Amino acid sequence: MNFHVIKEDDLFYLSDVQGMSARESENVSGSGLFTRDTRLLSRLNWVTKPDSLVMLESESKEGYEYHYLYTNRPPVQAGDIPRESILVTRSQTVDGHVFKESGIIHNYSGSPIEMAISYEIDADFADMFEVRGFAAPFEREVHVDVQGNVCSYSYTARDGRKMKTDVEILAGDFVCSWTPLRDTAMQCEFTLCVPAHGHVVWALVARPSIDDTSRANSQSFSSENVSGSKGVHLDVHRSYEEWFSRMPRVAGDDRFAAWYTQGLKDIRMLLTDFGYGRFLVAGVPWYAVPFGRDSLIAARQMMMAAPDIARGTLATLAHFQGKEVNPRRDEQPGKILHELRDGELSRTDVLPFSPYFGSIDSTPLFLVVLADYFQWSGDRAFVREMLPAVKRAFEWIEHYGDRDGDGFVEYWCESDGGIANQGWKDSGDSVMDVHGQLATGPIALAEVQAYVHKAYTNWARIFDLFGDDAESIRCFNRAHELQQAFLHHFYDPGKNLLALALDGGKKPLLVASSNMGQVLWSDILPLEIGMSIAKRMLEPDLFSGYGIRTLSAEEVSYNPLSYHNGSVWPHDTSLILAGMQKYGGWALAEPIVSGLLMAQDGFAQRRLPELFCGFAIDEVEKPVPYPVSCSPQAWAAAVPVFVLEQMLGMEPDAPSGRMTLHPHLPREIDRLTIEDICVGQGKFSVTLYRADDEVQASVLANTTGLTIDVLTSMKGVMSKA
């Protein structure tokens, strides 16, 4: 990964691997300080004189901080600082309101030294779509004002929103010297005198504000608190500690525990709250905003660790649920959004993303995740509160989602600035026929029909529990009708294949893809067909050894380096894993778990990225990174939590007061203890272990209010209240 990113709430800083941005005159990397989908600091370059420093290490313990350590090279002339006699540490942190770079110079030599430090800064207030190169740059009139050690950038957007970034240098009693560079860029210089065997500190603080109301807290910054990663960011540090104190703990296998812990760190980094409860943005750096599909899937993956994320995600998306027919935004009443942007181009309707609804699967996934949340929590009050949104979502499925009345939900982009392909594989070349020809719409994707079936099936039961017999029967009947139609139009028994989709002419696109694996996550397939498809997913053209390829290596359009036509997406593989276990049992699911474990071995910090290339395990020593993959990405970070759920074989039924465990372990793991798993009205702890060639489970504690049934093949059912 050739970039670093730190984030807290809606503020994040993207930099190169030395914590700097725009070292050249143009910022071609897209780096900078961002909030509200806007770049409020576009340049941050740090330079020292003498230029004798070499970086020793960079490290990040938590998602809101990065640390950079330097020492000095050997002297080149008399009087230079003796080699390796100083240690310089730059610590960058964000707390959701303020970006801070704290510096400290330790002088281990016997003589005092002087070091001149300069910062080059700039702010362009660019929209995220401009930064990414997806929109022509706006001409903006940015004002610069210097007062003492503070340089202020201000800009009024075309819709009247006022934005400002104050950059303050704190370096003891020294007064900074500001020099204009190109355009609005400024340079600040100051000199620090470091006594023998002593140290000095400095800091740069950037405070972005929107609409003339500062988002920073009112703390003052002084020489006493300019160094270190805590200080003004102590609240963030404590919130991380509180977050991990509430998460399930894993012990017994260091490899899995490290992967799991890194996933939790990244999930904590990606949390945001718009006032309706915590939810996960899709990923950094480019997708640090609410996404319907991504946020919902990640919330579902995290259910056993943090069901409150599902609740916050559902409440947030319900608030923004579609209200009108608006082709510009691909919006219809009841539809769940695709993404919500707050940059200038979206706010002024240059782009249709405030919000944009071009996602065919967000609405059924909303229903699926809400139903699963109820199964896990038994939270009747929240579900009852969501019922109006539920009924609007079903109305959208039946009236707007099914455009031609054939019983399938299909998409067609109506927006002139929208997304052509509106499933999770949303690149322009991701839906094709066996000859590699791109399909024309409207398009009915296989996995979307499975999501809809899952929604109908689950809600038939929930409506029954809530006493709505008519709606329960209607959902049951709709699920049955959809299943019959799906098997007739999508399933090819001769090829043992589920079509990727139906095109606009209702022709099945019979290419082998991961989409048919995601169908297994629902109950739309009869057992025999589901088992057959599950086995098909493990054939070497689809299973790379690290995960499931998005497209079979035998297809004309296969490209292991592509975004969606042969790459491996960890979240995709994890959903297929859940379906494989349902239809094929652990014997078919275990190779996928082992593959994911080997995949995470190949990435720094055991952080699975958004996607990686689809080369087979016998072609490469480790997974090959995709060049512009987001990392961390929410639904990739949540994979180890979801894998753990599959190993436990959890089937909670909180409304009925029971839960079943079907424990399994991959061959690489002999024992695993998981404490404080969230379900029902409390938590439970359990140890999985091997005994007589079978995996057993011992429930250690249970405050869930549920009776836990542990099911094993040899010893039947054992209950633990």
TrEMBL record:
<dbReference type="InterPro" id="IPR012341">
    <property type="entry name" value="6hp_glycosidase-like_sf"/>
</dbReference>
<dbReference type="InterPro" id="IPR054491">
    <property type="entry name" value="MGH1-like_GH"/>
</dbReference>
<dbReference type="Pfam" id="PF22422">
    <property type="entry name" value="MGH1-like_GH"/>
</dbReference>
<feature type="domain" description="Putative glycogen debranching enzyme N-terminal">
    <location>
        <begin position="6"/>
        <end position="202"/>
    </location>
</feature>
<dbReference type="InterPro" id="IPR032856">
    <property type="entry name" value="GDE_N_bis"/>
</dbReference>
<dbReference type="Pfam" id="PF14742">
    <property type="entry name" value="GDE_N_bis"/>
</dbReference>
<feature type="domain" description="Mannosylglycerate hydrolase MGH1-like glycoside hydrolase">
    <location>
        <begin position="363"/>
        <end position="591"/>
    </location>
</feature>
<dbReference type="InterPro" id="IPR008928">
    <property type="entry name" value="6-hairpin_glycosidase_sf"/>
</dbReference>
<protein>
    <submittedName>
        <fullName>Glycogen debranching enzyme</fullName>
    </submittedName>
</protein>
<dbReference type="GO" id="GO:0005975">
    <property type="term" value="P:carbohydrate metabolic process"/>
</dbReference>
